[in-house]
Amino acid sequence: MLNRGNARMTVFDDKGDFDAFEKVLAEAVERSDTRLLAYCLLPNHWHLLVWPRKKGELSRFVGWLGLTRTQRWHAHRQDVGNGHVYQGRFKSFPVEEDDHFYSVARYVERNAARANLVRRAEDWPWCSLYRWLHGGADDKPVLASWPLPRKAGWAEHVNAPQSEAELAAIRRSVERGNPYGSESWNERTVRRLGLESTIRPRGRPRKEASADNKGS
Predict the structure, then answer these.
(1) Per the domain annotation, does 213 fall within a domain?
(2) Of 93, 147, 148, 210, which residue is least crowded by CB atoms under 10 Å?
């Protein structure tokens, strides 16, 4: 799941902004009982990997999170109601609970290193990898157990670069909202969740060439 600042503006200006979002995130987890598996906050966007328990929970969780954070963001800057903080509705996609899950978890937790904000992913304080390695204070988001056991040497695994093909597939799911998993699982998930629109080609259909333009 991802959301960006409106027009890619910076939404986290300093440590106080990052900490404030983590506090709201912890409140959202507590009030909804949504399982937070991984997250990473970047200056102009954030990534969350969550595991809802029931239908409709995801929208309620993110809706409360986004609205509450926006209200507090404006209140802190004393410009209540002055424009949008986020670019629009959050982006999300379902993930299969196999190696595809590990790929997305790596993608989320490697964000700060991939953006060259830190040398190693676990050095970024506002990330679940840092929280997992260093423990968390009472006012920080509580991370839930994963549906799969965390791999041995996970930090090193996160810091290893992902292939261009893997990154492209994940980013395609981010942009389109199509399931990220094996081909058979994707097909079942598309039917089960009614996500047919996420796998259709974008743009206007190509016109058939006329007989005069086909050549000999």
Answers:
(1) no
(2) 210
